[in-house]
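Sample entry (288 residues):
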Amino acid sequence: MDKLKVIGAMLTFSTIGIFIKNIDLPSSEIAFSRGVIGGIFIILTSCILKKKISINSIRRNLKVLVFSGTAIGINWIFLFEAYKYTTISIATISYYFAPIFVMIASPILLKEKISLKKIICICFAVIGMLLIVGTNKSSGGNIIEYNHMLGIFCGILAAVFYASVIISNKFIVDISPGDRTVVQLFVAAIVLIPYILMTTGFHLSSLHGISLYSLLFLGIFHTGLAYTVYFSAIKNLKGQTLAMLSYIDPIFAVIISTLFLKENLGLFQIIGGILILGSTFASEIKDK
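Predicted structure, serialized as tokens:
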């Protein structure tokens, strides 16, 4: 049952790009709205299930929660920008460079030893990214004009901030996944307010039709519901199982973008994607 929950969450995450492309708002406002709607949904769910929020646990981890929540907000902005400037396939593959950044930073920040296998995986992943970056056009008949280089750059920056979220979460102790997620979502939304006010301003009142429905779906299902289901299952699964199931997200994102948006990958992009996803997958498989 727990595996089915994770699979369901990964399949939900894989469709985020399609909804982002239908929301007529700047990326910062989408990220802000996602944090608010998702946070409210999780709080309401906790109230229905009669789960109390531990203020003491939050207070003990407040500094790390604020840092990771801020990183989540910035991560969302760059990821949503990547979806707008390039195809969902390329943006998703670029985003999954995050585990490589974690591997690179772990010996310095977490004092973890890096094995020869992981060094080799990093090298292959870098080669894969170079293949993707070196291809400025995606194959197929898509009439949308893209700026692939800028999209890839935004995807990589999103990966950097997501890697910082992964690492910072390792310093969070004695707090339930629900409490942690709620705080991080609201922090992500709060830190984005001054940025939005200084740049684009708020345009939520002008939202209607498919843009409004897509934003609500993103906040409720892709954030609140998917996070709740995901965190309720991961505590009962092994890390290696979670690592393998997490690759459902990028694989299905590529399939969905190909089937529904006709965003085909070129040969070198396919090879690059295989190298990146394959390297990160191989690095997470424990040696016998």
